[in-house]
Amino acid sequence: MKDMSPNVKLAVMAGEDQLFPDHNGFDFKSIQKAMKHNQKSKSLRGASTISQQVAKNVFLWQHGGYFRKGLEIYFTFMIEHVWGKKRILEMYLNVAEMGQGLFGVEAATQHYFHKSAKNLSRKEAALIAACLPNPKGYTIRPLSAHVASRYPWIIRQMNNLEEDPDVQALLK
Questions:
Q1: Domains of the chain (ranges plus CATH)?
Q2: pTM (2 decimals)?
Q3: DSSP 32-96
Q4: From the CA atom positions of the chain, what is the Rg in Å?
């Protein structure tokens, strides 16, 4: 964590899971919203928290049905209780795919910006966070329409979340 800019920690929380410091691994309101959306629409909306994504990325496989989802719930519960929020965020930033074949924020930062993750600016961190829902399709180079429209929103959310004491504790 000491080798990562606070900007990237804040950007992934702003873009992926704004309630991360406060929930127990599951965001039930987002799950309900996603279920309603998915019943009405052909496009699927996910509701995985950072904790759930870490459970999947570290312990499980990418695709699967109800069995894999059940295991994801178990591992999410366990890492929330054993690791805690700082370790979960650290693991997320080290294992998430952040571009085609780029795993972890250091690899992404070196590839896109030719510098250490410790030195990421707010804009650069927001660009990386904007590609996270689909890092193979939402690209920084070339800049995809999704990333171009999403990263300014992430910067605004970073500004809104930054002063929250629970968020601040995770940025250190």
A1: 6-171 (1.10.3810.10)
A2: 0.89
A3: HHHHHHHHH-SS------HHHHHHHHHHS-SS--HHHHHHHHHHHHHHHHHT-HHHHHHHHHHHS
A4: 15
